[in-house]
Amino acid sequence: MDARFYGYKHWTLEETPRCFYVGKGLGDRPKQTRNRSHKWRAIVKRLGLRVEVCIGPVTNEEACAWEVERISQECTFSECHLHDSVDIGCNFTRGGDGVVGRRHDEEAKRRIGESSRGRKATEQARANMRKAQSKRGVVQYDLQGNVVETFSSQAEAGRATDNAASNISKCCRRRLKSIGGFVWRYEGDRFDPKLPAVLTTEHRRKLSEAHRGMKHTPETRHQISETQRGKLLSEEHKEKIGVGMSRYHAMKVQDDAEA
Fold first, then answer.
1. What is the rounded CA–CA span in Å between residue 38 and residue 120?
2. Cα separation of 47 and 27, whole Å?
3. Model-wide pTM > 0.85
4. Which of 20, 191, 237, 257 is spaced 20 to 30 Å from 178 by Cα?
5. What is the Cα–Cα distance from 154 to 146, expressed in whole angstroms?
6. CATH 1.10.10.10 domain extents, the chain
7. What is the CATH topology of the domain spanning 131-214?
8. Following DSSP, what letter does each residue of 96-142 receive, concatenated?
9. Where is 150: in which H helix or E strand?
10. pLDDT tens profile 1-37
11. To 5 degrees, how large is the angle CA 7–CA 10–CA 14?
C-alpha cells in the first residue's frame, strides 16, 4: 500500500475563519503556493491563509475519498472564477480527480523529444520564460541538507547573500555544486546530500541532444556577448576552442571538396 498522501484544508484568517479549499497531495503540497488558481491567490492576498493538514499519510484512494467527502461538507465547490465574488470556494471539481505519480516511458519521452526538436519559441514566449525563471522561488541549504533561508527570486537571494544571481541559477540547475558553502535549489526541488550535486555526463548528453538544432535569436546572442566581454579564458578553455575550430575547418574543407 502506497500510503504517502495527505488531505488538507485552506482557511481564511478572518475573525470567523472560512474554509475555501480542500485538497490532497504529496509531501509539502498543503503549504505550497505554486500551481494555484488565480482565484485562490486573490483570496489568500485579501483574506490570508491558514493550512490545516487533516489526514495522512494515507493511500491515494483514501485521500481521494476524503477529498470528495470534505468538499461536499465544506461547500468549497464552485463554478465561479471571479476574484471578488462572495463565493470564495476554490474547488472547481468535486474532488477525487487528477493524475498522481504518472511517468512517461522511454518511448513516450522519445516521441515528445522528436516532436519538440527544432521548434522555435516566439520572442514573447522567450521573454515570458526568462521572466518566470527569474522570479521562481529559491531555497538555500547547508551542506547537510538543512534549509537555511527561502527567497522569492534569484535576484532577491543574490542581493541578500552577496552572490551573483547567475551563479545561484547555475547551482539550482546543478551546474555548480555549491556557492560559498551553501547549496541552492528551486522551490519544490529539494536538495539531498546523498544524491549527486551536479548533472551526470549522461544527463548532460541528453540535454545536449534535446537542444540540438536550436538557434539563438540576435537579441540572445548580443546578451551572451555582453556577459562574456572582458572575461579571461583559461589555457584549457583556449585549447578546447582551438580543437573545435580545427575540426570545423577540417569539415568545411571536406564539404567543399565533395561539392
1. 29
2. 25
3. no
4. 237
5. 19
6. 131-214
7. Arc Repressor Mutant, subunit A (1.10.10)
8. S-S--S----HHHHHHHHHHHTT----HHHHHHHHHHHHTS-EEEE-
9. strand 147-151
10. 577 899 999 999 999 999 999 999 888 889 988 888 8
11. 155
